[in-house]
Design goal:
Largest sheet: 6 strands, mixed
Structural class: alpha/beta
CATH architecture of the largest domain: 3-Layer(aba) Sandwich
Number of strands: 11
CATH topology of the largest domain: D-Maltodextrin-Binding Protein, domain 2
CATH superfamily of the largest domain: Periplasmic binding protein-like II
Number of helices: 10
Order of helices and strands: HEHEHEHEEEHHEHEHEEHHE
Number of domains: 2
CATH class of the largest domain: Alpha Beta
Shape: elongated
Distance between the termini: 82 Å
Strand order of the largest sheet: 2-1-3-10-4-11
Helix content: 40-55%
Length: 265
Amino acid sequence: MKKRYFMAFIGSIALICLLSAAINLFSSTITTAQTETILVSAAVSLKETLEEIKPGFEKVHGNIKVNYNFAASGALQQQIEQGAPADVFLSAATKQMDALAKAGLIDTTTRRNLLTNRLVLIVPKNYTLKISDFRSLTNSSVKRIAVGEPRSVPVGQYSEEVLKNLGILEQIRPKLVLANSVRHVLAAVETGNADAGIVYLTDAKISDQVKVVATAANNLHSPIIYPIAVIKASKNPQAAKTFTQYLTSTAAKNIFEKFGFGIAR
């Protein structure tokens, strides 16, 4: 009799364990099925800002996970044109977004101007050369000036416009060192490999190794606009739209402004 009760007890325990495992497996399957992961291809000047925004977004939208792909906007444009996966594109200029729109690669109904920025001239923090404004770049003591490659790097496009409108571009062209992203421009100045560089204000703000000596007047270059849109080939378009909408929230705007970005009107 005792043996029969003991076997029944063991059987009950085994059944409970099996039911518990089945429930956990079922719950895990449901959770996995409901979780969507989106890939956001964004201008590298947004790296720290978007990484700070991510936890807040994922806390509010627990079923959506965000991965980032940071690079120069021109490089990201080419990746998307070549079929690389992406759900959202956030560019540092309208030129790259316009190209994708013309190619029919974005959902134009989701496109909006998200942010603005300023263009600044930086030098190494402990530099002794007298560089006080953009025209100082013509001084013979200035040998190397880091700028973005204007054909593919938006900050390079804006920099070229400033130098051209000031009438000094051709004079200093031999000094220009072209970089493939705004962060490479920043690094060149931080390490002293360039006497000066032109970056966004937001990039200068994240570095304690450079100082800003001048800010370009807005009328010297095209408006610095960061447009955002969902990629038409996105496998998770609704999740992508949810993320783009979150970037207009008060929580996201506060982080953007903390890093020095302006909010597009």
